[in-house]
Design brief:
- The chain contains 5 helices and 17 strands.
- The chain is of the alpha+beta class.
- The protein has one domain: Carbon-nitrogen hydrolase (Nitrilase/N-carbamoyl-D-aminoacid amidohydrolase), CATH 3.60.110.10.
- The strands form 4 sheets. The chain has a 6-stranded mixed sheet with strand order 5-4-3-2-1-17. A 6-stranded mixed sheet has the order 8-9-10-12-15-16, with helices on one face. A 3-stranded antiparallel sheet has the order 11-14-13, with no helix packed on it.
- Strand 1, helix 1 and strand 2 form a beta-alpha-beta unit.
- The radius of gyration is 18 Å and the shape is globular.
């Protein structure tokens, strides 16, 4: 792995047209690589609108296999640019079996690994349980030429267990492709929600002494059935250092975040904040219970 890593997060508004989205991200990835990015990360389900805003079986037609057209196109670009890309796919694993899957593409264009979203939400406007089978690959960092990437997806970001296991398995960085925002009819509380969302992920950085990359989308996406006011995705993608410090943060418009990550900081911080040393693994059996 490299000691330092130049990263780019592509915060974008997503179009209805899948081809248009792919071409947009191909162009933005090229631009980021031309500015020195070695790792480029895309938001959750970036190939189209966030369809789980409703339950509609017609959306299954947009799922694709892995490997498939999106990973093929992004893999070719990764090879051309000699970079690593983290993308997000509505995966068709088999007829009637679908996942929300993050895929890591290596510099040679191959699939370095993938992660199937483990925690699946089911809330108004976020009806993911209708579409996605919970992941079965576990929490395993993906080995790449630039380090071990601890890739998790959106709702996973609320669970310290997921981040901790990635850290214990040697992840060098935590990465969260995300699609999160607020409904127009519930705007009043969204600032607290957004602050909580950022705080929990900064806490993963602190507890594990790992840098954290969070990539969200922006823009308003309406409910095609007219049952909800629609979702305003709040953006605010950010890059946090291993003490939870904000290195870079986006606003609520289209933006590319870039930063240089120094992996040496993890060892230094763990030496004077030895959280892993002082864990009482002999006393944590209760964590495996649903409720005590």
């Amino acid at each position: 792995m490299t000691q330092t890593l130049s990263v780019a997060l592509l915060q974008q508004a997503i179009d209805l047209d899948k081809t248009k989205n792919l071409n947009l991200f191909l162009a933005e990835i090229e631009k980021a690589a031309s500015q020195g990015a070695q790792l480029v990360c895309l938001p959750e389900l970036h190939m189209g609108p966030y369809f789980p805003i409703t339950e509609n079986f017609e959306h299954y037609q947009h799922a694709e296999t892995i490997p498939g057209p999106t990973t093929d196109a992004l893999g070719m670009l990764a090879k051309k640019l000699q970079i690593v890309i983290v993308c997000s796919i509505f995966e068709k694993r088999a007829p009637g079996l679908y996942h929300n899957t993050a895929v890591v593409l290596e510099k040679d264009g191959s699939i370095a690994g993938m992660y199937r979203k483990m925690h699946i939400p089911d809330d108004p406007g976020f009806y993911e349980k209708y579409y996605f089978t919970p992941g079965d690959l576990g929490f395993n960092p993906i080995q790449t030429s630039i380090g071990k990437l601890g890739v998790l997806v959106c709702w996973d970001q609320w669970y310290p267990e997921a981040a901790r296991i990635m850290a214990l398995k040697g992840a060098d960085i935590l990465i969260y492709p995300t699609a999160i925002g607020y409904h127009k009819d519930s705007k009043s509380g969204f600032v607290k929600d957004r602050d909580a969302w950022q705080t929990i992920q900064r806490s993963h950085a602190i507890a594990n002494a790992l840098p954290v990359l969070v990539i969200n989308r922006v823009g308003y996406e309406k409910d095609p059935n007219g049952l909800l006011e629609g979702t305003q995705f709040w953006g605010h993608s950010f890059i946090a250092g291993p003490q939870g410090e904000i290195i870079k943060q986006a606003g609520d418009t289209v933006e590319t975040l870039t930063a240089e990550i120094d992996f040496k900081e993890t060892e230094q911080i763990r030496q004077f904040w030895p959280f892993l040393r002082d864990r009482r693994i002999d006393a944590y059996e209760g964590i495996l219970q649903r409720y005590l």
